[in-house]
Amino acid sequence: MKIAIAGSGALGCGFGYHLQKGGADVTLLDNWEQHIKTISEKGLTISVNGSKDNQEMDICRPHELKEKMDVIFVFTKSMGLKSMMESIEHIIGPDTKIVCLLNGLGHLKTLEKYINRKNIIMGTTVWTAGIDAPGHTHFNGQGPVEIQNSDPSEKEATIEIVDLLQKSGLNGEYSENVNFTIWRKACVNGTMNALCTILDANIEEVFATPTIDSMLRNIIKEFATVAKHQDNVTLNVEETISYLKSLADKVGAHYPSMHQDLNNNRPTEIDFLNGEVAEASKKLGLEAPYCQQITDLIHAKEAILGITTTKVK
């Protein structure tokens, strides 16, 4: 099976590494020149749950890959999805499957502009990752990776990818309700990522604060309201809080991706998380003051750092 990883940052490299170890023919796609050069010349150096390895891997810029792929995993930042899809249209065949594990909300609408809905597989992952230097990454977690086909007639093809993920040690699971999973993952990022970024602290530190229950409850209530109105997804607020606390215990002293982005002067995905909830609330005639305030605070930090942000869908 020929697989492309469209966006080979920390998570993309982690998935590409495991899929290749599992027997797939993997090509990493990225635009970071030093990252490409290092992996091409010295292989990918990766630490998986503390165990270090080096793996030779094919890597190039998106336009340099010429053959059609069987499966493409997209791991761009939310605001980079449109640009990436434009750059890989030439490797998408009539039967190519796109697996989208991006953080955030609203990505299916973007993907449908470039590929038939029957070939789109949506999902989530709770693996965490980071880049230590060009060509050097770390990858932590135990899964699961939950996916579901957007077209009910394509379940068999999705099951094949679930099997591939399982063989690769990525704990693939077929979801019967991926929209619920996506919204719950959005709650993870809309709380953990956003709060760690605003407070300049890791997950362990944030979840040890005396105000954590209040902060989580106020944010999740707004996510739950929009999820119900927009996608008929029911999020139990108290159950979601318990899930987040359990996840925080497992992850520990990790700085999430949004915090990493600001520390490296990169724009954040806040518009596709709390910002999406605030925007959707307005369209529905509702209010989401906590999500709006969080979005404004993150954008204020970006402005202070001189980071230009543009929401692209």
Automatic annotation (TrEMBL):
Keywords: NADP, Oxidoreductase, Pantothenate biosynthesis. Pathway: Cofactor biosynthesis; (R)-pantothenate biosynthesis; (R)-pantoate from 3-methyl-2-oxobutanoate: step 2/2. Residues 3-150 form the Ketopantoate reductase N-terminal domain. It catalyses: (R)-pantoate + NADP(+) = 2-dehydropantoate + NADPH + H(+). Pfam families: ApbA, ApbA_C. GO terms for biological process: pantothenate biosynthetic process. Its EC number is 1.1.1.169. This is 2-dehydropantoate 2-reductase. It comes from Alkalibacterium kapii.
